[in-house]
Model the fold of this input.
Amino acid sequence: MGLYPTDKSRKRNFAIITAIETIYILWAFYILLMIVYDPGIFGDRHLATYIVFWGSLIWSLYLILRLLKYSRMAKAVRYAIPAVIIFWNSVEILGRWNFFKEIWVHPGEYSLELLLIFGAFIGVTVLTIFTPERERA
Done:
């Protein structure tokens, strides 16, 4: 049995499909960035890197505009994952070009920001724990 059951009475497992799609997209763009970063192939200041940057940025903005039209949450989440992964290519390339200091590279310089992020995680966790069962459904 594959990811897509042939029996019409069973529903497809969208969690598995989304996970596999995410893995495919992550690795595809990871390999693409490694190719354009490699100085023996292109290098991070080559025209190919600029094309990947602008292509990823424009493509992700198009995907995000389409995402805004979705009304069903499950479909929107499935669509948002690749949109964000593609957008993140632009962020990665900007970091590679030293356009900004990355918080995860210099965590000691961003204590307040890290505390705010940690507080947000704690807040969401508390809200999730104390949300009544009928509202979760």
